[in-house]
Structures are given as C-alpha cells and as structure tokens.
Design brief:
The complex is a heterodimer of chains A (about 500) and B (about 750). Among the domains of chain A are: about 130 residues, Histone, subunit A, CATH 1.10.20.10; about 70 residues, no CATH class. A 3-stranded antiparallel β-sheet of chain A has the order 1-3-2, with no helix packed on it. In chain A, α8 packs parallel to α10, α9 packs parallel to α11 and α12 runs parallel beside α14. Chain A is mainly alpha-helical and about 500 residues long. Chain A is built from 22 helices and 4 strands. Chain B has about 750 residues and is α+β, with helices and mostly antiparallel strands. In chain B, a hairpin with a 5-residue loop joins β22 and β23. Classes of the chains: A mainly alpha (about 500), B alpha+beta (about 750). At the A-B interface, α3, α4, β2 and β4 of A face α2, α8, β5 and β29 of B. Chain A: One of its GO terms (cellular component) is transcription factor TFIID complex. Chain A: Its main location: nucleus. Chain A: Pfam families: TAF, TAF6_C.
Chain lengths: ~500, ~750
C-alpha cells in the first residue's frame, strides 16, 4: 500500500459499457470500476509500452482494492462528520491515516470540473477525464477584490415541542396531512383529538361536529349557540380552529362545487367562538384569519353571498381585538389592498377585497377606494367587463354593490333607492354630523362637484354615486374633511366642496 | 497495516461432532520470507526510518504482487490452476477447487433452504451467509478472480439487504494477496461462525449434506443424487466443517426469534476471547457472549457514595436557602428513598478523588436538590389513561412528554457540524467544526470574555485583579482555535452541575489529540497525546477529574486531567471505538464500536466486564439511564437497543428512525428516552413498555417499521439533530444545523 498505485492524477477511464465491441482482449465479464485499459494508459505515460493484459488486469484489480481501502477509511470520517456525502477532505484524512501522501490540489470548497477528451492513441470510444485547471489572472483578482465574507454562524432557539405537542410556528414543519384517504371521505369527519383531553370534552367535540354537519337547521343553530355561550370549551379551541381551517381550505379548493353549507357553518363557528366570552381566542387569530380571508377573496367562490357575512364576522373580530392587537388592522389592510390593486385578479376577488375593506371601517374604505384610487380602477374594470362578455354580469353587479356598500361606510346613504345592506354602518364620529349637514341639500350636482367626484372615485363609480346628489355631497365631505388635514394642495377639490357647503 | 501472518491457512477448529469430514486441504505453503519482511518493516517503523520503510515496502509489495498473481496469469475460468500449489492432495480435494462445484453447491443450498418448511426456514436461512462468504473467499484465494466476481454477482443480491456492509467490503477483495492483509477476511477464516439450530433442524441439515434429502419438496433438486450435486454438497460440507460452529439447541425452533438470531449468530467468539486477561481461562472455554457475561461477577450499579461532610454542608445550605414548600418533601436528598434495590457503592470501590470537597461541590449538591424539587415529572403512561390525566393526585405536575427546545444553527458552511453539546446549566452551547475550530455560544445572551494577554502575573493578587485583566469587549459567541483537523467531540465539565457555568471544555479531533480548554481564559490548557489515530469521542467522568476517549486505533483510554499520559487503555474492540460513556457512578465505562458491539469496562481494573452483542451495524451513540441499570445504544442498523447492564442481555430493540441516530438521552426518571437523528426528527421512546412490532387490526403494516414504544416523533424542517440532552429538570435541549434549502451540488459537473 503506497503511493505507487493510488496517487495517479493522470486520468481515469470511465468504465466502458459491457457491449463495447473492442473488448475482445478482455474477458467478456468486466469486473470492477478500474479497468485494465486505465493501467495501460498510465503505463504508456510512464514509458512502459509492453504491458501484457494479465498483468494490467491484475494491477487494475489491486488498484481497485486499494481505492476501496481508502474509500472505506474515508467513509469513517464522513460518518463521524455526521454527513452523508463524501468530501475531498475525507479522502485527504483517510490517505493521511493510511500513511499515504495526500493528493494536492483538491479542496472541498472548490467544485471540481472534469474535462473529457479522447486520447490520441486510444481506441475510438474511450474517453479520459481530467481535472481542468483554470487560469487565474492574478492582477485581475487583486484589482477586483471580490472577497465574499461568509455569514456568521448563528444560533436560534425555538420550541420543537411543548409537553409533547408540536406548536404550529414557522420554525416547525407543517403538520403531516393525516391519512389522505380519510381526509377525502366526507363521512369520517372527526379529527384525531389529543388523548390528553378529558373524556367529556372529547364527547362534546364529536357531538358538536356531528350537529354542525347535520342537515337539520335547528340542530346547527343549537350547536352554534352552545359554542357561543357555553363555558369550559377553551381546551377544544385549537381543534375547532384547525377544523375550520381545514374545512374552509378543502371546500374552497373545489371552486364552485364547494359545499356552501359547510362554509357557512365554519363561518358561524368563528363568529360563535368570538362571541363566547369564556373563550380566549386571541392566540388563535393567526389561524383564524387565513380561512376568513380566503372566504373573502377566493374566486370562483362556492357562494358569493357568503362574502357579506364573512365581512361582518371579520369586522366583529376586528372590533374585538384591534385594541389589544394593534397591528391587526394594518396587516389586514395590506393583504386586502394587494387583492384590490394587483392586476389580473378576478372580479370576485375584487369584490371580496372591497367587502373586507368595509369591514375595516371608514378608514379602510378611504385608504382602499379613495387614496389608492381603488374605486377608479374598479370602475374601469367594471366597464371593461360589461363591454366584454355578458357572463360576468352577476359578478359586476356584486362588485358594484360591494363598492356602494363600502362607500356607505364613509357616509351613510340617506336616500331609499338602494336597500341598506347587512353590515350596519358603524356611526363614525364626524361623518355623521357632516351627513346631517349635507342632507338638506338635495339639488343636482354642479359641474365642479361632478368633476371632483370623478377625480376621487373615477368616472364609473362617480356616475353611480352622482345619481344621489345628497349622498354624493356627503361622501365628498367625508373624503374632503379627512383629506384636508394632510393634503393642503388639493385646492380645486376643496373649493368645490366649499361651494357645496354653502 | 498490521502484519497478520498468513491468514490463509484455515485452522482445523473443532467442528460439530455429528458430521464426518474429509481432510481439509492446506492450500498454501507458509511463506516465511513474508514474515521476515514484515518483521523488518515493523522494525523500521518502530525506529522511524520512514524512507527506508517506504522503499522496502514498495519493493516488497511489487515482488509479492507479482508472485501472488501468478495463478491469475494461467487462469481460464474452468481450468484448475491451483493444482500445482497443492501437490500431494488427493483427487477429490482437487476437484473441490472447481469453481463450478461451489456455484452448484450454493445454488442447491439456496434451493434447499427456500424449499424447507416455514418453521425451519428461519433457522436455515442464516446458513447462506457464511457459506457464501467462504465460497467467495475460496475463489479469491485460488486466484479465480473472474469466477469469484461472477459468483458474487449471481448470489449476493439475496444477502445484500441484511449484510450489505460486510459483503461490500468482501467484494473489494480480488487477489490472493488481499486476503492475507485484510482483517475481515482473516476473521472469517480463523474464527468459527456460530449458528443456532434446533435438534430436528440440525438433523435435517445433516441429512441433506449426506444424501441430498430432507426438508425439500420434490422437484427442487434436479441434480440431487447426481455427481454434480454431490460435489456441490461436499463443498458446503467442507465449509461447515472448517468454519461453522452450529449450536444445537434443545428448544423448539419457534423459540429462535429474530432477536436471538442477531445475538448468537456470527463471528461472536472473538468478541469475548481475550477480552480481558483476568478471565482468559474462562472465556476460552465458553466463547459465547452470553456465557461470558454470565461468568462475570455482578456489577455495582448503585449510586456513588457521598462525603458525609459534604452532605452535612449541603443539607445545612438547603435548609437555609430553600424553605420547605409544604409539599411534604423530605429535606434530605429525595433520591435516597428510591434505590431500595441498588445498594450504594462502598467508598473504597470508588476511584481516587480529591480528598476534600470544595465550594463548587456544595453548590452542585444544593442545585441537585433544587432540580429534583422543580423537575417536571414525566410519565408516558399518561398517554394511555387520558381521562385521568388531570386528576392524578400528585404533589408535582406530571406530563406525558417533555418539552423540547431546538437550537438551530444557521449559515453553517456545508450545512453540517460533527458535534455539539450543551452545558448542564444550559448556559453554553459548544459545537465542533470540520474546519478544526470550536465555537461557543452563550445562550443567556451574556458576553463571553476571556483574559487579556498583556498582563503581568506578579500583579495578580486577588480576585479584583483578575477581573481587571478580563477583555473589555466580547460577544455572545467565541471561536476556540487549536486543533489541526476536524473536531469530532466536545464535552463540558460536569463539576458545577446545574449550579453554574462550567470552567472546562474537552475536545477531541482527527489530529489524534484531546484538548482541554479553560473557559475562564478561553485558551487551550493541555493537549493530551496518546492515541495514534483520530479520537472519535471524549467524555467527562460524572465527577470531573477523569475523562475517557475512544479512537480509531481500536482502544478507549482513561485519562486524568492532571496527567498527560493515559491511566488505562481499554483494548479489546476489533474496530474503532466510536462512543464512550461513563456509568453514573463512574465505576464503569461503556464503549461502542464499529465492530457492532458495545462493551462495559471496569474502570479500576481495566477489564471488560460485559459484551453487548446484537447490533447489526457500527454503534453511533449511547446513553446510560440515570438510575444506573440500563444502557441504550444506537447503531447504523437504525435501531436503538436497550440493554440490562447486570445480565448483559438485550431488553428490547426500538426501531423507527430512517437515518443515522446521532444522539440519545434519558430523562431523570429513566423512563423516557429521546433520540436525535439525521432523518431530521427527534423521537421519544417509552423505556418501560414492552415494545415490539405491534400492528393494530386493519392498520397498514407495509411501511410500518416503528415499534410500539415510540411515543412521539417531532420533525424539524431541515435540521439533522446532532445532539439531544435532557436538562436536570427534564426539559430537552437539541441542536443541529439547518440544511440549505437546495443542497449544493455533490457531484462535479462534467463539461462537454
């Protein structure tokens, strides 16, 4: 065992396919990785030309054995390095330990690229692989100084498990989908409960879910009422929240074929849990909000009417938790604005976004529809849709209704043309007063007013709003009032409003 | 390369009595020049004449290679080239050299085993492996390389799933000269391969060997009875006589379970023979690990004794500082009431320790009691009886499973680290890197500050001066540089226990040194040299002062911090010592090795007192239970074995991991075992349950390799878990480097 056979940097033959026609000299059965041809090539390079086949083959076998010895040694280093890939460093250490001079010029950090070429004297299909030596222009290296400092190694702790339960945090992998065949069948709906739950609660859980999924409306209502009022359900909340999330995702994934009733139940559960004073829902908000937002924004939606209810549930949650959880509203706003303004979204998503914004209150609507020019963009999209296909009518109508409802948040519509929508506008201090002031003036809008309105809301929406001059003035007042504080340069609009005020 | 003298001549071992054997032919004359060479080489090596050695070696291997490969020159596959080497052997033996006979023999044996009844097949199938190995080695030894390779190709696939490592190694042997130097081959040639069979099974086997009948259905053996078949069986018979030792058990065959097979099949005799000089006489009579273990004296597994003065001092402090919390807990150490069965170790049995206790000892003992009181009790039985979980009348809260805190290392070059460990007070994390350095992190966010180098020792008089010469700056992490090769193990000293930060760190490396680092000065204090090869593992004794190391040179060594030479050398393993662990009372040392066994050594006598045979791969990790009764070991066969120390028996085998298991740790009550693995998971195991493979009715059994005592599996995102550790209060700390999302290209790109 010495440098003689192992340290051969000259080149290595790739094992030939066994069907190679010129393997007449060799036995039909090609054994091993290192072929006798390689030995012959090496001998050639050393000036030994008369190497008989048996000797070459014996040498090849021996080389292979020695290589394997080195490899087995190197694998030890790999294992203790807790790796599964062998590196040049392992080979280096192995050679050192076997008292063989290491191979220089290989480092674990520089990837080795091999170049393939045909030896001049060799047979037709034989290739030799060699390491390519890159030429380095030292001057350029010095000049460019592109030293990339690796990032410092850092340590970050997180809870992998808390008393045997893996918390759902970004550091941990998402939970395994439990048995796909079970998830797809609608009959077996019970999720595995942690067996540490007390027996009564487990029973309650199964009963509750079966009642919620029963076709009987009364049962469902009773279940929701129980969820909204009963005490001692805190332990079940993680499971219920999970259940809601899973169900909503699954039904929405089906597109329009999704079961609207299940979604309704899920929505109802969130509402009930939020209503229940004995349930502390705040830690689960991050799990509840995604399904809610999906309910709002997904399109095609199994039941577009559900967006309205979702919006009211969302506004319920916000009013409950935004005082404690201060970034809640701004986070939602960001998501909704993205849905509202990003190009290439279906109209249903837009409508959902508008509903969501109105759930955020007047501020949300102002930011979304007015300041970000949402209304203008939506108006344009509506016009395009109307001009294009007729199939989108329902969606356009929904979107328009959503926009009008949202604008009601800014200034309540006092006329009786449009039926008041479900989300009862929360009276915002300030706007209500303005509305009271403006309600007197029911005369048609002046040109200046129409111009301002179009500037604020875009042509399409402005026309819709302009049909009710009183409301339009109220809207302008609401927008203008809030805009005046920070944007003094919008003189033209203010002028128009001033006129209106008089 | 060790100078194994002529491993080829098969020793005429005592064989099973019932089978009559033809004389074993001696295949090669003894080569005396060979030995001479080896002696000269050894001499040169010992004297350090490297160049001369190299030159001689080169020269010698060349001549020998030519000599040994002569047969190959004149070989065609079907001729009998070995004949000239075995002049004077009768014709029948000469025929045995025909490779075709071995092919036929193995084919028939395979057919016979497969055709046997189900109840016998489980005890017959282990026959295939040794027969295969010996046939292959025979062919290689005869210089029939082509035939050997073809034989391997034809029959190895069936055996590969269970014996891949050994088979792969043997497949690299191609020339007769390889046989002489290879240890694995030498072991197969020299030692009897032990097998177990029931009486009736053995009778069937003998029947088949003699007349080709028995155990098979009709139609399988076309060539049975023919000349060809007889020659094949003779070849098998020869291997059986020369190399196999079949223990005929009186039990019925049904009792031979898989676990039994693992423990009693294979080259087990060398594992115990010569293991300890003291028991040599006995060991040679019974070459069975179980018998060896039974012959040893019982172990002292109790708690270590405590200095009475230290105990009084600690008790006083406990009463002062910790008010009785009204839970009725005794003021004295609570552990005393538990070990009714294990008597504490007598003070005279303990290794010598510092005569008087220090303040740190008192603080450690006080902290131990505090930990005992505040510990979260783990009780996996709660998982079964869920209804009673919250009504357990106990003074302390019990939970089924521990909380696990994972420390993920980011931006690690290449995405892997060889080792990591936490200090007992959970304040420090140390990791060894392949780039030869060690990195410390303070997990409390405090700065790690060393001493300045520019101070005058004469000016240091009191503690205040020491504080003054501390580095002003510092960060929460610090590199320790000193090793010159990958660092494979790091260990914090246990002296302060959970009462305070450790002061010392040990590290072992591929540069064959162990280094002691002071955590006060953040400098290397001592380099312990003694091992000849990479040191895979180093571990402190439970009381500090002593430490143990395991190395590639097949030894484990015991060291004392104040001496640079080892105190004991534990030799006996047949391959690398990969893991060393101290028994909690520091009387015993457990070592895990690449020879698939674990051993227990008496630290004082330096003798092997138990051998644990049963793993089917190199041992990768071990842990003692804190109560001192059990040893858990994990191996490359992806199983965790639980051993009873006193009897040396395997209690159970736990499976479920899908990749190498890097670390094991017991909870303080010894009832939960946690393992960390390269399959990116941490798993919890129930130590007390029976385990075993229980598939419930209607469950999918196909890919279920998990035993029933697997309590929970906690996957990480992409982090192989290098280290798991229970804190004294039963929380689990784990560490591992997160892998880059897209693995760097392992295979070099081929340019066109």
């Amino acid at each position: 065992m010495n440098g003689l056979t192992v340290a051969k940097p000259n080149g290595v033959h790739a094992p030939k396919p066994p069907s190679a026609p010129q393997s007449k000299a060799r036995p039909a059965f090609a054994s091993g990785v290192y072929q006798s041809d390689s030995v012959k090539d090496v001998a050639d390079s050393l000036g030994i030309t008369s190497l008989s086949e048996p000797i070459a083959s014996a040498l090849a076998s021996d080389v292979e054995y020695r290589l394997n010895q080195v490899l087995e040694e190197a694998v030890r280093y790999m294992k203790h390095g807790k790796r599964t890939t062998l590196t040049p460093a392992d080979i280096d250490l192995a050679l050192r330990n076997l008292n063989i001079e290491p191979l220089y010029g290989h480092s674990p950090t520089v990837p080795v690229a091999f170049r393939r070429f045909q030896p001049a004297h060799g047979e037709q299909k034989a290739f030799v692989y060699t390491v390519e030596d890159e030429e380095i222009d030292l001057e350029r290296v010095v000049r460019e100084r592109r030293v990339k400092v690796p990032r410092e190694i850092g340590v970050k702790p997180h809870w992998l498990a808390v008393e045997g339960v893996q918390p759902l945090i970004p550091e941990n992998p998402p939970p395994q989908p439990s048995h796909p065949e079970r998830a797809s069948s609608p009959t077996s709906t019970t999720d595995p409960l942690p067996s540490s739950l007390p027996l009564p609660l487990q029973l309650y859980h199964t009963r509750l879910l079966s009642a919620l999924l029963s076709p009987d409306d009364a049962k469902r209502a009773a279940a929701l009422a129980s969820l909204a009022a009963d005490a001692g359900l805190q332990l079940l909340v993680p499971n219920l929240v999970n259940w809601v999330g899973e169900r909503v995702t699954r039904e929405l994934a089906k597109g329009e074929e999704g079961d609207a009733e299940v979604l309704e139940v899920a929505l109802g559960m969130i509402g009930s849990m939020a209503k229940n004073e004995n349930i502390f829902l705040e830690p689960y908000l991050h799990q509840i909000l995604p399904p809610l937002l999906s309910l709002l924004l997904v399109s095609p939606h199994p039941s577009p009417a559900l967006r309205l209810r979702t919006s009211s549930t969302l506004s319920q949650l916000i009013s409950l938790y935004s005082p404690k959880y201060t970034t809640l509203a701004s986070r939602l706003l960001k998501t909704l604005l993205r849905a509202l303004l990003e190009p290439e979204r279906p109209l249903g998503t837009r409508a959902g976004a508008v509903r969501g914004l109105s759930a955020l209150g007047a501020e949300g609507v102002r930011r979304g529809l007015v300041e970000s020019r949402g209304a203008e963009a939506l108006g344009r999209e509506c016009e395009e849709a109307v001009a294009g296909e007729a199939g989108d009518r329902a969606e356009v109508a929904e979107l328009v209704q959503a926009v009008l409802d949202a604008l009601q948040r800014l200034a309540p519509q006092l006329g009786s043309q449009a039926p008041a929508p479900v989300p009862a506008p929360v009276p915002v201090p300030g706007t209500a007063e303005d509305a009271v002031v403006v309600v007197v003036d029911g005369s048609p809008l002046s040109d200046a007013e129409v111009g301002t309105l179009e500037e604020v809301l875009g042509g399409y929406v402005a026309r819709l709003v302009g049909a009710q001059p009183a409301w339009a003035r109220a809207l302008l007042a609401a927008v203008g009032k809030e805009g005046r504080a920070d944007a003094a340069e919008e003189g033209g609009r203010k002028e128009g409003e001033d006129v209106a005020m008089e | 390369m060790s100078a194994t003298p002529n491993a080829s001549s098969s020793p005429p071992e005592s064989t099973s009595p019932a089978v009559a054997a033809p004389p074993v032919p001696v295949q090669q004359p003894t080569i005396t020049p060979d030995q001479q060479h080896q002696f000269v080489l050894q001499y040169l090596r010992a004297k350090g004449f490297k160049n001369a050695e190299q030159a001689l070696h080169t020269d010698y291997s060349l001549t020998q290679m030519v000599e040994n490969n002569k047969p190959d020159v004149s070989t065609s596959a079907e001729s009998l080239p070995g004949l000239k080497y075995i002049a004077g052997v009768d014709v029948q033996s000469a025929l045995m050299l025909d490779p075709a006979a071995r092919n036929d023999g193995f084919k028939e044996l395979e057919a016979w085993v497969d055709g046997s009844l189900d109840i016998y097949r489980i005890e017959f199938s282990p026959l295939l492996f040794p027969v295969f190995v010996h046939f292959y080695l025979d062919l290689v030894q005869l210089g029939l390389k082509e035939a050997a390779v073809r034989f391997y190709e034809a029959y190895s696939p069936r055996l590969l799933p269970t014996h891949s490592a050994t088979l792969h190694h043997l497949s690299t042997l191609l020339l007769p000269i390889h046989m002489t130097t290879d240890e694995e081959a030498a072991r197969f040639r020299k030692e009897p391969y032990r097998l177990r069979m029931s009486k009736s099974g053995f009778a069937l086997f003998v029947g088949w060997l003699t007349d080709g009948m028995g155990g098979t259905g009709g139609g399988v053996g076309d060539s049975f009875g023919g000349e060809k078949g007889r020659r094949g069986r003779d070849a098998v018979l020869r291997v059986v006589n020369a190399h196999l030792k079949i223990d005929v058990a009186a039990t019925t065959s049904a009792l031979l379970s898989q676990g039994n097979l693992e423990e009693s099949t294979g080259l087990v005799s060398s594992l115990v023979a010569g293991a300890s000089p003291a028991t040599k006489g006995r060991a040679s009579t019974s070459a069975d690990p179980a018998a060896f273990n039974a012959a040893q004296s019982p172990l002292k597994l109790g708690k270590p004794p405590m200095d009475p003065a230290l105990r009084d001092e600690a008790d006083r402090l406990i009463k002062e500082t910790m008010p009785d919390d009204g839970t009725g807990m005794d003021l004295d150490r609570p552990k005393e009431k538990q070990d009714g069965e294990l008597p504490p170790v007598a003070p005279e049995d303990m290794p010598p320790l510092p005569p008087s206790f220090r303040e740190v000892d008192v603080r450690r003992e006080v902290a131990r009691v505090a930990d005992e009181r505040k510990r979260i009790r783990l009780d996996p039985t709660l998982l079964q009886s869920s209804a009673t979980a919250d009504v357990t009348p106990g003074r302390r809260k019990a939970v089924a499973l521990p909380s696990i805190c994972m420390y993920t290392l980011h931006d690690v070059p290449d995405g892997n680290i060889p080792c990591a460990t936490f200090s007992q007070d959970s304040s420090l994390l140390a990791a060894g890197f392949e780039q030869s350095y060690i990195r410390l992190w303070n997990l409390k966010g405090e700065k790690i500050r060393g001493l300045r180098s520019d101070f005058d020792v004469n000016n240091i008089r009191e503690a205040r001066d020491l504080r003054r010469i501390r580095d002003k700056s510092g960060s929460t992490t610090r590199k320790l540089i000193g090793h010159s090769a990958p660092v494979y193990s790091v260990a914090f000293d246990p002296l302060a226990g959970s009462a305070g930060a450790p002061h010392w760190l040990l590290s072992s490396s591929a540069d064959a040194t162990i280094r002691l680092w002071s955590l006060d000065t953040l400098a290397n204090v001592v380099a312990y040299r003694g091992h000849e090869s990479p040191v895979w593992d180093v571990q402190w004794g439970p009381l500090g002062t002593y430490f143990a190391s395991g190395s590639r040179d097949k030894t484990a060594r015991l060291w004392c911090t104040d001496r640079v030479a080892p105190l004991r050398v534990f030799a006996g393993h047949l391959s690398d010592v990969d893991v060393v662990r101290f028994h909690p009372n520091s009387l015993y040392l457990a070592t895990g090795s690449s020879d698939w066994t674990a051993r227990l050594w008496d630290v004082q006598r330096g003798a092997c007192v138990r051998v644990f045979v049963g793993h089917q791969g190199a041992v990768t990790s071990m842990a003692f239970s804190p109560d001192g009764r059990y040893l858990a070991s994990a191996a490359d066969d992806l199983s965790i074995n639980l051993w009873d120390l006193n009897s040396g028996r395997r209690i159970k085998k736990m499976t479920g991991h899908n990749a190498a298991i890097h670390s094991l740790s017991f909870s303080a009550e010894s009832n939960v075992l946690v393992s960390g693995s390269a399959d990116w998971t941490v798993r919890c195991w129930d130590v007390k349950s029976a385990g075993g493979n229980v598939a419930g009715l209607g469950e999918d059994v196909t890919d279920k390799n998990e035993t029933s005592d697997l309590l929970a599996t906690f996957p990480t995102k992409r982090t192989p878990v290098i280290d798991v550790q229970f804190t004294p209060r039963n929380m689990v700390l784990t560490a591992g480097p997160i892998q880059p999302a897209t693995p760097s290209q392992a295979w070099p790109s081929f340019l066109p």
